[in-house]
Structure formats: structure tokens, C-alpha cells
Amino acid sequence: MRNTLPVFRKLTSFDFAARIRLNAAMQANRLKIIWEKFRVGNFWRRKSVRLAAALFCALLLAVTVKPVGNSVHRTALNLESPWQPLHPLTAGKNTGEVFGFAPYWAFNQMGGIDFSTLTTLAYFGVPVSPTGDLDTYDQGYITFQSPQATDLFRRAHENGTSVVLTLTQMNNANITALLDDPDAQNNAINQAVSEVQSRGIDGINVDMEYDGDPGPEYRDKFTNFVANLDSAMHQANPHAKVTVSVYADSVKDPKIYDIARLWSVSDGIFMMAYDFATAGSDTAMPTSPLYGYKEGTYWYDVSTAVDDFLTKMPANKLILGIPWYGYNYLVYQPGVDVPTYNSWWAGPVSQTYAAFQENVATDRPDIIATDQGWDNLGEVGWKAYYSTESGAWRMIFLEDSRSLSLKYDFAKAKHLAGVGIWALGFDGAQGKELWQVLKDKFGSKLADHSVVTKAIAERGSYE
Questions:
Q1: What is the pLDDT of residues 91-116, one digit of tens each?
Q2: Partners of 383 in the β-ladder
Q3: 454: closest CA among 124, 123, 199, 238?
Q4: Predicted structure pTM score
Q5: Closest by alpha carbon to 125, among 227, 228, 195, 181?
Q6: Do 144 and 163 contact (CB within 8 A), yes or no?
Q7: 321 forms bridges with which residues in the sheet?
Q8: Which of 105, 249, 296, 333 has the greatest number of beta carbons closer than 10 A?
Q9: Secondary-structure percent of the chain, ordered helix, strand, coil, rounded to 5
């Protein structure tokens, strides 16, 4: 059910001033009641009590009517109810990022999102063509313009969660063609900014994944593209967010990502700290091992990648993306770093947290044995089962509350900007533990009131 809190689509200067006066009057009345209760009591004769009461009232008045900044959106005005203070106390509120991607193909599974924790919802995604046109025939764009997306974006805004559009391109030739053509880049920037503005959302994430190393020339071109996009987006909306998704090994193997420059021309870097293992891996290993590289077990790991990034950029602009999925392998015998294999009837598959819980954790008649364990270096657990249907053992490393707790503690210890999720909807009906550990580690978010007041349009500019 959609949140029914009112959305204030436009707040005039008169309305804003009137709301301030109304709230100030209500707070003054509260203070008067408190004052009278203290005054008529016998204990009022005590000087220490009178002094404490005066200090308390002064403090209450200060935190309820003092604006936080010069602009309307920085006054922390609670627009959801006139009976709330202008500046609610924010002790214990999370001011860091909890950044979640919402892929269009998982839209039917978005009901479990905890908007009290999620700070940014990144719609995924809309492809950019080599000519810079947004692909309006792609299902990603069609879903972006759908009533279903409108409803999700409104739920996000009503709960103070920002919404950004992810621009995607996964083809090497298309990426280099775009970067070689300044007119195509300008076209992409203009269409993307227009789309964001007309839809009523709050920014852009760039996810262009180049496989290989095209050389420093293309790193410069990609950085300049992001810089120009960032400038145009912030000119249209000074409060917008522009982030860039990059591979976890982008310092070790830069490809098109110049991390030392990208962080300075954007609002943040989203490290895709997953796919350290892939479906084609020769051994069964976690898709996101926290440690193991220095010990020689894994080719790379999350902790080393983060340390490498922090030699190129500040911690407060780095978002640590974490997988809510794993790879389900065929193995001869389950365990850590054991050989994988393929057969003509079965092979490795990517499996979400929800899919594993639903398909494997039930009493399936074809499962005749199970096993599980913990990777002391990767700091993640694994589960295995022998299926008569496949005639073999299958196993998967999958994040849970224990492994996520360790990764979130690591991100906090490194003072990172926050953490991210690939992807929303992968949690499923039994995924409450994934949200609970986020709340346990980071608390409820400090809602962004600048987005609470923004209306989501039914459709964008393009048909």
C-alpha cells in the first residue's frame, strides 16, 4: 500500500512564512504550558529547578524554530504534519548513504524496501546509444515511464528518499563511439538532464562498463563526459546527485575509470564490490570476499580494493556496493576454494538471495543431503546441497546478516560515504534480515526534505 502522507507539490514564500509562524506559535504555546506546570508546583521555589527549567525551555525553543541554512530545503521543516517541530532532533539518525539499485526486471519484488533506511533509489536503467540518444525502445526506458515506476518513485519521495536515473552502456564499441563524439556526448547530457527534470527525480548515476583497457585517452574522455554531465545536472538542479559506478579493481586495472579525477567531478563513486567471482570461475569463491588477497587465496578482495581506492580519493565520497546475490556452482565436494565444473545438463548460475531461499531452503524431495560452512578469509558463509535432479553437489556463497554486519562495520571503520545494494528486489519475502542489519548498523536515515516536496510527474518528456 502506498504511503498516504501528503505531498506538498509547491510551497510559496507566503505559505512557507505562514508555516514558520504557525509552528513558532505552537512551540510558544508548548513552552507556556511547560512553564505553568513548573510555576505552580511547590518545587518551583527551588532556585536550581527554576534555572534548569529556563535552560530547558531555551534549548527547546532553539531546536524547534532555528533554521539550519539559508534555503527553504535546508530549514529541516517537517512538511508532513504541522504538529511537528521545525527542526526535529536528529541524534542517532544516519546521514550517510544507503544507495540501492532498482532494476526494472525486479519491479514486482520492490514491496520489501525499507524506505526508513534507504537514502537513494537508483532506477536501473536506460541505455545510451553511440549517438547519445536515450534508447526509448528499450524495456528499461519503457518501465522508467510506467505507472509502476511513478508509484515507486512517489513512495520514495514521500519517505525522503532520493531517486536517480542510471544511464547504462555495456558494449565496448558503443562506449568508445560515444566518447569519440563530443556532439553525441552533449546530446546524451541534454536528454538525460531533461529526463530527470521532467520526471521530477533527483539526479543521475552513470554505469558504463568497459571490458578491457582502451588506454589513457579514453579515461580522459570518460572523465570529461562525467564532468560535463555533472555541471549540466547541477546547473538544472543545484541539489542533484551525480554518481559513477565503477569496477572494484578500477585502481588495479583502470579501464575507462580515472578514480583520482572521477571523484572530484562527481558527487560520489559507487564501487561495485562484487563479481570477484563469476559464473565462469574455476573455483568456488565468494562474489564479494572481504579478505583473502594478501593471504594468496583470492586474486583480489574488498578490503584491498577499498585501500587502493583511498590512495586516489577521499573516503567520504566512496560508496561500498555489496551483492544480494551469489553464484551457484557445481562442485565435486562443497568447501572453500574447491574446483568447479560444468556438465552437459547443468552449470553455474547467478542466484539472488530470494531465489536461493525460495528454491533451495524448502523441503525439496530431490535434495538428499545438505551442508554449510564459513569462509574465514572471505568472511562470508556458504551453503550446499546434493540434488538427485542434477546428480551432483551445488554450492553458493551468499551474504547474510553475519557477513553483511562485517562489511558494514568495515565501511564504517574506513569512514566511507556509505554502502550500496545490488540490487533492490533481490531480498524477497525472507529478506527482512538484510534490512534489519542495515538498520542495526546505520539506524534510520535523516529524511531529505528537499525531495519530500518534489512531485513525480506521470511521464517524462519523451514518448
A1: 457 779 999 999 999 999 999 999 99
A2: 372, 396
A3: 199
A4: 0.81
A5: 195
A6: no
A7: 272, 420
A8: 249
A9: 40, 20, 40
Among 127, 169, 123, 130, smallest CA distance to 149 is for 123
Residues 6+ apart with CB under 8 A from 64: 23, 27, 85, 86, 87
Distances (CA, A) of 152 to 84, 102, 155: 26, 10, 5
Dist CA 300 CA 321 (whole Å): 16
- The amino acid that residue 441 corresponds to is K
User: How many H-runs (helices) and E-runs (strands) does the chain carry?
Assistant: 13, 13
Give dist(CA 441, CA 406) in Å, integer: 10
Phi-psi region of 76 (alpha: psi -120 to 50; beta: other; left: phi over 0): left
Question: Cα(124)–Cα(165) distance, rounded to whole angstroms?
Answer: 7
The owner of cell 511537528 is 84
Residue with cell 563479481: 275
Q: How confident is the model over 387-418, as pLDDT tens digits?
A: 898 889 999 999 999 999 999 999 999 999 99
Distance CA 117, CA 323 (A): 17
Q: Tell the residue number behind the cell numbers 552437459, with chain if given.
A: 344
Is residue 86 classed as helix, strand or coil in its secondary structure? coil
- Neighbouring residues of 314: CB distance < 8 A, sequence distance ≥ 6: 263
